[in-house]
Amino acid sequence: MAEEPRSPALDGLEEIHISYRYDLLLPPCALRFAPTLRVASFARCRFPEGISPTLAFPRLTRLALTEVEISEDALHGLLSACSALRVLQLDWCGGFDRVVIDSPTLQSFGIVADSYVGELVIHYAPRLERLIAFDNFDIQGISGGNLAMPLHSVKIFILDTVGPDLDAVLNFIKYFPCLEKLVITANQPRV
């Protein structure tokens, strides 16, 4: 995608999936479809620094980032530009230490963090029903101190990690008083 696709047929594009074999810079033309996109996934690429504050994804409901390098400021700028976002998946992404969830529309959030993310802050997510954390995600990093209030909307919490501290998990899930399904998979540490 070296040149910007200019075909009028793409003006109403609702879904885009961009995946590279190698870590390449996401071309600016990929973001030109922001106003009409409903679904977007980006894999093995780097987001440009300083995503424009005027960039908006008013119709985007599903966003998946896989092995994407994006700065913390760019990530939060991107998320704040998604006013209709319902599903967010972050898999093995880097470039940021914290993920702050502040979304009135988000219903499902999944993160495969490995060792890249130190902290998940759920500031405001009244519709969040599914929280899925895989790999070496540190349950301490999503402790109750990072929740502004109990999340009554969360029904499903899935944690797949290396040897979680069950006391920390039990302390954490008290912030989900309406939890219907709890799945914990503890794996052996990698040697």
Automatic annotation (TrEMBL):
<dbReference type="InterPro" id="IPR055302">
    <property type="entry name" value="F-box_dom-containing"/>
</dbReference>
<feature type="domain" description="F-box/LRR-repeat protein 15/At3g58940/PEG3-like LRR">
    <location>
        <begin position="5"/>
        <end position="138"/>
    </location>
</feature>
<dbReference type="InterPro" id="IPR032675">
    <property type="entry name" value="LRR_dom_sf"/>
</dbReference>
<dbReference type="Pfam" id="PF24758">
    <property type="entry name" value="LRR_At5g56370"/>
</dbReference>
<dbReference type="InterPro" id="IPR055411">
    <property type="entry name" value="LRR_FXL15/At3g58940/PEG3-like"/>
</dbReference>
<protein>
    <recommendedName>
        <fullName>F-box/LRR-repeat protein 15/At3g58940/PEG3-like LRR domain-containing protein</fullName>
    </recommendedName>
</protein>
